[in-house]
Amino acid sequence: MALMITDECINCDVCEPECPNDAISMGAEIYVIDPGKCTECVGHFDEPQCIQVCPVECIPKNPEHLESPEQLMQKYHALVTAKNDA
């Protein structure tokens, strides 16, 4: 399951540089997470780094993007392969 940033985001800028998949970017008003790139840090870390650094706890799981740990690992491998091929 990919993560999402809620409208409680205060744009503190700490989550974006922590994302190993470059899935976080500034949206129209708050930061957003690209569900196609979010692996919840599977393959990189034991815990999602954005959640670890968020001071307002506004990063829950996105119910519109349900994925198992195995699917997240497959996405991680696909992203790494694409990055290495670029």
Description:
This protein is of the alpha+beta class. The chain has one domain (16-85): Alpha-Beta Plaits (2-Layer Sandwich). The chain is 26% helix and 7% strand. Strands 1-2 form a two-stranded antiparallel sheet. Strand 1 (24-26) and strand 2 form a beta hairpin. The longest helix is centred in the last third of the chain and has 17 residues, at 69-85. The mean pLDDT is 96. This is YfhL family 4Fe-4S dicluster ferredoxin. Residues 1-29, 31-64 form the 4Fe-4S ferredoxin-type domain. InterPro entries: 4Fe4S_Fe-S-bd, 4Fe4S_Fe_S_CS, PSI_iron-sulfur_center, YfhL-like. GO terms for molecular function: 4 iron, 4 sulfur cluster binding; metal ion binding.
Relevant terms:
Alpha-Beta Plaits; 86 residues; electron transport; globular; 2 strands; 7% strand; 4Fe4S_Fe_S_CS; metal-binding; iron; single chain; two-stranded antiparallel sheet; 2 helices; alpha+beta
User: How do the SSEs run, as a string of H and E?
Assistant: EEHH
Task: Provide the β-strand percentage band.
Answer: 5-15%
Examine the secondary-structure arrangement and name the CATH architecture.
2-Layer Sandwich
Number of strands: 2
Task: Give the arrangement of secondary structure elements.
Layout: E1 24-26, E2 31-33, H1 49-53, H2 69-85
Antiparallel strand pairs: 1-2
Short note summarizing the structure:
The protein is 26% helix and 7% strand. The protein has 86 residues and is an alpha+beta fold.
